[in-house]
Amino acid sequence: MTPPRTALAEVLARSRYLLFDFDGPICGIFSGLPAPTIAAHLRDLVTAEGVKITGVAATSGDPFDVLRYAATISPDLTQTVADGLRAVELRAVEVADATPHARQVIEAAHNDGRAIAAVSNNSRQAVARYLTTAGLAPLFTAIIGRTEPDPRLLKPDPHLIGQAVKELSAAPADCVLIGDSLSDIEAAHNAGTPSIGYANKPGKLERFTTVGADAVITDMAELIPHLTRRQPATD
Ligand SMILES: [Mg+2]
Fold this sequence. Notes:
InterPro entries: HAD-like_hydrolase_sf, HAD-like_sf, HAD-SF_hydro_IA, HAD_2, HAD_sf. With 235 residues, the chain is α/β, with parallel strands linked by helices. The protein has helices spanning 4-13, 35-48, 63-71, 75-92, 102-111, 124-133, 159-168, 182-191, 204-211, and strands at residues 17-20, 27-28, 97-98, 115-123, 142-146, 175-179, 195-198, 215-217.
């Protein structure tokens, strides 16, 4: 089996385009407005329409579980919940904590001449707002996020990665997606794109390896030494 560090060096050496999942690798979007609070708010929107929530969405702390439930009911309810989620995401990014070393990674990749994209299940507007406020937006060639209510278009579906690949005029195999969820690794696999799992919580490392991430990191800073291929050796 290839040692993880060699795998990381190899996957970054052959990736001209870096695709960053947003929530996790760039910031913790729900660090200031906790996800369970948002999920409860979205449940209120559903029940206000006279719809009873059953299954995992009835108690889940993940807002996306409520969106997925709404999608099983009707397009109108899906739109209502997606709009509600976008509204809170736009507030959440204003109080979100940056991920340690994310800025340094993005700047190192940019300085190395790589094209950078965000590929997020969060609202595109919210991702753009965060990156603009952080002064990072000019370093991104593409900002891809949720623009339609249908949750089936979100990762692990390859749809969003496909959008990024198109905007970058890249080949899927020349990109690498850095994500902190199994759905990121699955989406990358479905798109024909290599992936790096960011194991920011205990237990993720083993799961990323199991689902076939090309490499796994536990700190975004681990990427930085491998993002210097185009700088002069004397620099
Ligand atoms: Mg994530």
